[in-house]
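Deliverable D4.2, example record:
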Amino acid sequence: MEWKNLLRLGAAALALAAPLGVSAADKYPAHPVKVVVPFPAGGQGIDFVARTLAQRMQAISGQAVVVENRPGGGTVIGTGAVAKAPADGYTVLMMANSFTVNPSLQSNLPYDSEKDFSPVALLTITPHVLVARKDLAASNLKELLELAKKNPGTVTYASIGNGTSPHLAGEMLKKLANVNLVHVPHKGTPLALTSLMGGHVDVLFGNLPDVLPYLEDGRLKALAISAPKRHASLPNVPTMEEQGFAEFESNSWYGMLAPAQVPDDTIQQLNKLVVSILQEPEVRASFDTRGLDVIASRPAEFKDWLRKETDKYAQVIKESGARID
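Output generated by the structure prediction step:
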């Protein structure tokens, strides 16, 4: 599904969603909820989304909603824990692209991405920005590629971990531009950004919310943005398409899943709750300022999205030869 169609889908879902009312029929949640984020705490868009939702869920329901960061194994550890959690809807997973990447990168996953989870909602999507250390001898994508071709094997790109969407974005660029960029994986966004700003690596495909503060204060510079059009928060940064790569598409999405076999009524109530929160003007404004486009899909739409994303990344991994080691 193209990004523009996805945004139209989200707008329609938000328009149709009824405001969440508190009534005896709304029995979920009736006791504390755990939201598992399989990434390190802080410094990432997904952590911000998870904590924003958790705070509002708690305020609306009167039940404790706790965010638990369980990083490790390329998100496999936290994801696997949710797959084995009770199927009652009180342990949910906040997930990103790696959920649909790992099936093609890891043959020994301790869970089945399709059979062991119940999709709740695709929440937000954000573009990737190709950013560089401020002293790199390139101010746009063309200059970066020229630098890489003149010095093969010396230009490095960081990622937030093997198999993550920023890793695969770098692999896609290598293939499309026929250049030799060296991948340097890091354990999460904070370490990757620290390495980039310290001059230890050259470039990074970063999520817009994560890199925007460092672009605004001049510690990093933006070379391109992977979005259908220029973004309001970075109006002077050209898209990948403007710079000759119309077929390049890379972003990060954040969604919520529950263990398989959670009753459909519970899934629907949980979806209604999170969609209602995403309708709130203050929440939408805070997401907008961070470059997070609200989608707020229905469960069935998210299920379809996951299937298509899994197929897409399987093809990307096959064509690029990306590996996790």
